[in-house]
From TrEMBL:
<dbReference type="InterPro" id="IPR016047">
    <property type="entry name" value="M23ase_b-sheet_dom"/>
</dbReference>
<feature type="compositionally biased region" description="Polar residues">
    <location>
        <begin position="226"/>
        <end position="237"/>
    </location>
</feature>
<feature type="domain" description="M23ase beta-sheet core">
    <location>
        <begin position="322"/>
        <end position="421"/>
    </location>
</feature>
<feature type="region of interest" description="Disordered">
    <location>
        <begin position="216"/>
        <end position="237"/>
    </location>
</feature>
<feature type="coiled-coil region">
    <location>
        <begin position="55"/>
        <end position="138"/>
    </location>
</feature>
<dbReference type="Pfam" id="PF01551">
    <property type="entry name" value="Peptidase_M23"/>
</dbReference>
<keyword id="KW-0378">Hydrolase</keyword>
<dbReference type="InterPro" id="IPR011055">
    <property type="entry name" value="Dup_hybrid_motif"/>
</dbReference>
<dbReference type="InterPro" id="IPR050570">
    <property type="entry name" value="Cell_wall_metabolism_enzyme"/>
</dbReference>
<dbReference type="GO" id="GO:0004222">
    <property type="term" value="F:metalloendopeptidase activity"/>
</dbReference>
<keyword id="KW-0175">Coiled coil</keyword>
<feature type="compositionally biased region" description="Basic and acidic residues">
    <location>
        <begin position="216"/>
        <end position="225"/>
    </location>
</feature>
<protein>
    <submittedName>
        <fullName>Murein DD-endopeptidase MepM</fullName>
        <ecNumber>3.4.24.-</ecNumber>
    </submittedName>
</protein>
Length: 432
């Protein structure tokens, strides 16, 4: 069996505060509260047919403006998110630029060190070239001396040696002369070898220096290439930072545009509210009687009556309490219709356990008493406070919101305009 748990003490003139957002903007809720209060002030009065038409037209305007405000707020929210994302991206890119600049700084320091090493190596190569030049000059001088020496030796071999042999007096002098000639030959060979070795050593040193310089130049070329790539990357990042900053600026402008549109809509909303106020004032002055002949069942179909009007033990608290209405068990989403014509006094969320609910003031019935009806636990509401609804108009859909344990419509009939005078709906509503 389906049950609902309502708090006691609900009075029509003091509807419960909303404990849950109804989906309307704050402006719409204020307007609805204003319209509901106006209906209470009018009590048993009603708008003429033309006034009801004007009210419906104005209500449509309010709905359109409310939808426009909602759309612009969505645009404002999207623009705020876009700005936040753009600023986050800008911050991230700036951090990358900062890291890259540090890397470029290190790279430039390395390039400077290599460049200095190349300069030092160039000086060493120049010094070595100068040394080679001096050594080559020494070798050239030695070579000239050696050629003179060899010429003398040749002359000695060609004839001088014979003369020297003639002057030898004994074998010892002869052997000594032979040794001297051999020493001269060895010395000449040594001189040639030394000159050759010295020149080869200088050339080797210079070749090594040139190779070291080439290696340094290659290293510098690599560092220059890395530096160029980093500079290019930094340029790209800087452009991306500019784009992110531009995107943030565009988002800020979009926010301004959306905010301006919201303010314009709210001004229009206030203007329509004033028109409604004038209409209510005019209707109050005319004071025509609102009357009806009887009720219809608010559901065209339902499965059963899950809970009757009367005292019962609360299934949650266990306390005996008056169940001030009848529960019609029905599938979720079943349409709910106005049991009689009248003005919607409340349409929204209840803090007293009804969930989404609607209260309609019907005025006087043919028995001379004024009546109101309450429809509770709706899945959603399909009307709004201040509307005039005809008997059978759609006002919402069956649900299980608020203090409810299953999908059903909780219906109350108030005789005299307040919950304190709730009566058994079976005496007024046709129930099979």
């Amino acid at each position: 069996m389906y049950h609902d748990k309502h708090s006691a003490g609900f009075v029509l003139h003091h509807p419960p505060r909303h404990a849950k957002p109804s989906g309307h903007s704050a402006m719409m809720r204020a307007a609805c509260a204003f319209l509901a209060a106006a209906c209470l002030v009018l009590s048993v009065t009603v708008y003429p047919a033309s006034a009801a038409t004007s009210m419906s037209s104005l209500q449509n305007k309010l709905d359109k403006i409310s939808a426009s405000i909602k759309q612009h707020k969505t645009e404002l929210n999207d623009a705020q998110k876009k700005e936040a994302a753009a600023k986050a991206l800008e911050s991230e890119l700036k951090e990358k630029v900062s890291v890259l600049q540090s890397q470029i700084g290190v790279l430039k320091s390395q390039i400077s060190e290599v460049q200095n090493s190349i300069g030092v190596k160039e000086q060493e190569i120049t010094a070595k070239q100068n040394e080679i030049a001096r050594k080559e000059q020494e070798i050239a001088d030695q070579w000239d001396d050696f050629k003179s020496h060899m010429a003398a030796m040749q002359e000695l071999r060609d004839g001088g040696s014979v003369a020297m042999l003639r002057s030898v007096n004994d074998l010892y002098e002869l052997l000594t002369f032979n040794e001297v000639m051999q020493d001269i030959s060895v010395k000449d060979t040594e001189i040639l070898d030394n000159m050759k070795a010295a020149k080869e050593a200088l050339v080797a040193d210079r070749t090594q220096l040139v190779e070291e310089r080439t290696q340094l130049q290659n290293k510098k070329s690599e560092l220059d290439a890395q530096n160029k790539q980093m500079q290019s990357k930094q340029s790209e990042l800087n452009n991306s930072v500019k784009e992110a900053r531009l995107s943030a600026a565009e988002a800020q402008q979009a926010q301004k545009n959306a905010q301006a549109a919201i303010e314009s809509d709210e001004m229009n909303y206030e203007a329509v509210k004033k028109e409604i106020q004038k209409l209510i004032a005019a209707a109050a002055a005319s004071k025509p009687q609102l009357s009806f002949s009887g009720f219809i069942c608010p559901l065209k179909s339902y499965t059963r009556i899950s809970s009757e009007y009367g005292w019962r033990k609360n299934p949650v608290s266990g306390v005996n309490k008056l169940h001030a209405g009848i529960d019609f068990a029905a599938p979720a989403g079943t349409p709910i219709y106005a049991a009689a014509s009248g003005y919607v006094q409340v349409a929204g969320w209840s803090g007293g356990g009804y969930g989404n609910y609607v209260i309609i003031y019907h005025g006087k019935m043919t028995d001379g008493n004024a009546y109101s009806t309450l429809y509770g636990h709706m899945r959603s509401v399909a009307t709004s406070a201040g509307r005039y609804v005809n008997q059978g108009d759609l006002i919402g859909y069956v649900g299980s919101t608020g203090n409810s344990t299953g999908n059903h419509l909780h219906l109350e009939v108030w005789k005299g305009g307040s919950k304190a005078n709730a009566v058994n709906p079976r005496g007024y509503i046709p129930i099979r």
